[in-house]
Structures are given as structure tokens and as C-alpha cells.
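FW: tagging you since you asked about this chain on Friday. Here's the raw sequence from the shared folder, copied in full. Didn't touch anything.
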Amino acid sequence: MRDLRHYFRPLSLKKVLKGLSGRSHSSPRAHYDTELESNLNAALKKKLSSARQANQKLEQKIAAVKDSNTKLGLKIVAQKGNNAKLVQQKKQLESLLEREKRKVENLRFGKQEVDPIQHNSEEGMDSFFSEIRSETPYLNFGMALKKNFSKWSVTLDGKSIADVGTGPGIALSAIIEGSEPQRIVGYDFSESALKYAKKLIPNAVFHKKNIFDPFDEMHDVVFCTEVLEHLERPKDALQNVFSSVSEGGVLIVSVPDGRVDYSRYHINFWSPESWKAFVSDALPSSEIVYDSFRASNKAHYDVLVAIAKRQK
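HL: got it, structure written out here
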């Protein structure tokens, strides 16, 4: 028998691998891998496209919200402007209403015209102060005035103080409350007013005095509040009252703001501008600070003030 080993020579591993790599067709495994990769790429592209669309919609919603917020902000700004206008209109209406109330109040004692000269005479004031209807307006004024003392650098402790035209002393009692003046003096020409004041402030000294008469003593702090509007010769009165201020002392003098003062019992009315001109003319050599405050929010009672200091 012929030796067949010549025909079946063993192949080396290198030749086998070389033969396999030279085949023109791919294996089933390779085909499956390619198809899987293709499907994955397609699914990924689809998801990516969906994500982009969702992102675009989200950006559109964000833009819409921003636009809505902008419009809302503009509405809020406009509303604030409207609210400010409404507040201003409310104040104007309240002021107008208060003016009308005062007119009615001035007429409530009858249709007969009031003679302000007669009303502000000694007899007229005696009659007026014979019955104190309410202490509240006087107390409100005194407390409102006192709130400004720190701003005006005014202190009462250890000082000799005087209130010219003190009336029933109610405002003075509010002014001195909580302080310790060295001496308290009140001046008025109404007996009925002084009688009330003496009972109210027993530790004070009260004198019946006409505001045009010379003063016998000097004081560190002198008040003359809501008096000058009642006088025929306010300049003479102011100069005389200032003569009672000691060197380095101060005079605090006030009148109602004439632009909102409709009292039939007043003789004089000053605007803020005319008030400054009046006081500066009456007290040319003194150091004067001008201010204003509201004595009563309820009554819209506005007050003009001058703080005049006598030079040392």
C-alpha cells in the first residue's frame, strides 16, 4: 500500500489562520454585530432628536415665562405708580374734607359773623376759656412740639422756662412732662385761663400779663405758641417776648400754617414764606432756625415754627 502521508501533510496554524483571513464572506457573528451597532446608532439618533425637540420646547416655555415675568413686572411698576397717585389723592381729599369741617365748625355757633378783634380781647378770651371743652387738642400740640426738641437742640432740665400766652396751661403741662426745669413761669391776660393753669401745674408760677407789657425777668427757654395769629400788632409782641430771653437762650414761637388755617377767630395768617420774612424782619440780630410740624394727624393741623437764639 502506498504511503499516503505524502498527500496529507499537516498544515501549520499560521497557514490555517491565513486561509481564514483570506475568505471573502463574513461570519454570522460579525454580521450580527454590525446589524446591532446599526440599530443602536439609529435608536440613539432618534433619542437625541427627541431630546433636542424637548429642549427646544423647554427653551420656548422659558422664554414665554420670562416674557410673562417682564409683563408682570411692568404691571407691578404701573400699579405702584397708581397706588402712589391714589395715596396722594387721598391726602388731598382728606385735607379738603378737613378744611370743610373747619368751616362748618366755625359756623356751628350760629350764622352771626365773628368779630376776631372782640374775640381776642381780654374779655373775649375770658369768656372763651371759661369752659374748656376738651384738653386733647392742647395735649396733642404740646406733645407734637416736644418731639422736635432734640432736633432743635432744646433742653429744659435745669432751665428757667416761660410760656407766654399759656392759656389754660394744658400744652405747657405736656411740654414739661418728664423734664426737670429749674423754674416754670406762665403768662396770660385771661383770668379764667390762669385759674385753670394754676390747678393743672401747681409747681409753676403764673402771672396775669398783657403780651405788650415789658417783662420783669429773663428766661433760658421761652415759648410763645399759637399766639401771634390772635394779635393786631404781632411784630411788637414778638419783639417784646424776645426781650425776655436771656443771653444764649432761645425763643420757640409758632403759628398755624396760613395755607390750611381757616379759623374765623384769627387775625393774621402766614404762609411758610411770609412767616420767614416776618420773623427775620422782627428779629434781625438773632440766629433763627425755621421748621414745621403737624400738631394733629386727625385734624391736619400744620404748624410753622421759628427757633430764635439770643447771642451771648
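FW: The radius of gyration is 47 Å.
HL: agreed, and The first strand starts at residue 160 and ends at 164.
FW: great, closing this out.
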